[in-house]
Amino acid sequence: MQGVALKIASSCKGLNKLFPEVREIVPGNEKIKWIMAEMRAAVLYGKQDLRLERIVIPTPEAGELLVRVKAALTCGTDLKVYRRGYHARMLKPPMRFGHEVAGVVEEVGEGVTAFRPGDRVVVLNSAPCDICFFCTHNQQNLCEDLLFNNGAYAEFLRVPARIVEKNTLIIPEGIPFEHAALTEPLACVVRGIEESGTKAGDTMIVIGAGSIGLMFMHVAELAGVNVIAVVKREDQAVTARLFGARSTVQVNETEDVVAAARALTPGGRGADIVIEAVAVPVTWEWAVDMVRKGGVVNFFGGPPSGTKVQFDTNRLHYGDITLKASFHHTPATCRTAFDLVTSGRFKCAEYITERVELDEVPAVFARMMDRKGGSGGIKTAVFPDGVPK
Questions:
Q1: Residue 5 burial (CB count, 10 A)
Q2: 49 and 166, same structural domain?
Q3: Residue 19: its H or E element
Q4: Model pLDDT, residue 331
Q5: Residue 190 domain flag
Q6: What value does the mean pLDDT take over residues 244-257?
Q7: Where do the H-state alpha helices sit in the chain?
Q8: Domain boundary at 288, 310, 325, which?
């Protein structure tokens, strides 16, 4: 029946129960037109195999929402998944793609009282169970039943009941949808900042000037931290300074990157905190060599499974260095990030460096794979209804 319009007598209203996928009712004279409504959505089939397809619009079940997507954002995690063809925890193909999203509530499922059609919402991509061992030990990001939701690169997104309950937020009037969609990656950064024990007056080295590295720089700068950025190119150095870095080290112009970075720290002793946001072994090793005695290294960038690194155990032990990693977000850090976005303090507009329509998504990811310096791109905003004028 897909794509076929059926005309039936108005007395046959019960047929919507037989055909729940038939969604749109259009009155017309003595007839009602029942249309099996479809939407466009990006579907990932495997490594670098992203297709825009027409699929049936999902129906919200009890406790769920159907959201009309107004803006979705690209991110480094999506690019990594596109490159590898999967994500160990979040996505196994074939599956709808994308997870940074904001939109308008189209329909509410049975029992939903906190939202109504027309509400402007940002929908986070996961929600914890709050009953497992990790949730009850204040580690909701490690929830044993962490519920993920993908499918932001589409005209509509169905939101599971748990995410509706715990991680869907009303967007204030005046906040652009693409700005609100920054909440998810920013929530991960906020948690990384908190877990690293960051405080005003600290010196932080951030390795990497992708979207996440830049967010770390900006949040740290807003918190009163002296930020040093380690980047590849001059255009990245310029962008790092825009987002709060006081000093920069360019890898392609420095023989000893570690020495150059340490020289910018007070007394040359190393940074209080080093954030690794590149996800390759050499930068993990740099991070340990850049931190001061008693400092903290946060390995935020996640290399592929099986990746090995080497550290000087003498330096780790006698330097009393703390090594940690930071994964994902929690409902609390989502709200902290959302407050930062809606406060006007965060430079949301500067993160959106490209705007495209939904049909362009596969080509956008192909271009992201082929970037060869000087692109200056941070995040691409995808608008299923068309790019706003």
A1: 12
A2: yes
A3: none
A4: 98
A5: no
A6: 97
A7: 15-18, 76-84, 161-166, 177-180, 183-195, 211-222, 234-242, 257-263, 281-290, 313-318, 331-343, 348-351, 361-369
A8: 325
33 or 95: which carries more pLDDT confidence?
95
Separation of alpha carbons 389 and 381, rounded Å? 13
282: left (phi over 0), alpha (psi -120 to 50) or beta: alpha
Q: Give me the number of domains the chain comprises.
A: 3
Tokens of 239: 């962008």
Asked if residues 321 and 294 have their Cβ atoms less than 8 Å apart, the reply is yes
Any idea of the CA torsion for 200, 302, 185, 109, to the nearest 10 degrees? -140
Chosen domain end from 276, 310, 325: 325
Domain coverage including residue 373: 41-185+329-383
Q: The tokens of 292 are what?
A: 């001061």
Give whole-number Cα distances, 165 to 103, 112, 220, in Å.
Answer: 17, 9, 30
Together in a domain, 226 and 353: no
